[in-house]
Write a structure and sequence with these properties.
two-stranded antiparallel sheet; 3 helices
Length: 94
């Protein structure tokens, strides 16, 4: 009744050994760490093709946009009253 150990602890000769509770807690902590790590890995894997690849391969995207925009008259494409779009990669020259 006066023991500070939980009912799952294993005790030998009055001394507390590595308890089954600590083992269960370690296994549970490992599972939580693996789940959290898996979630972080999944988010990173999802962001790579969306954000990081285009950020590191700007030249390829510029070439693709040049081909896609070839032969397009910007004034014909834009709605009335909307500013004509320009190259987002072009410096402002300031």
């Amino acid at each position: 009744p006066g023991s500070r150990h939980c009912k799952h602890c294993v005790r030998f000769g009055g001394e507390r050994e590595v308890s089954t509770c600590n083992r269960k807690k370690n296994v549970q902590n490992t599972k939580i760490a693996l789940i959290f790590g898996g979630f972080v890995t999944a988010v990173a894997a999802a962001f790579y093709p969306i954000f990081f690849y285009p950020l590191t391969h700007k030249h390829e995207y510029r070439e693709v946009q040049k081909m896609n925009r070839a032969g397009i008259n910007q004034a014909d494409v834009q709605p009335v009253g909307v500013k004509i779009w320009s190259d987002p990669f072009k410096s402002t020259g300031k």
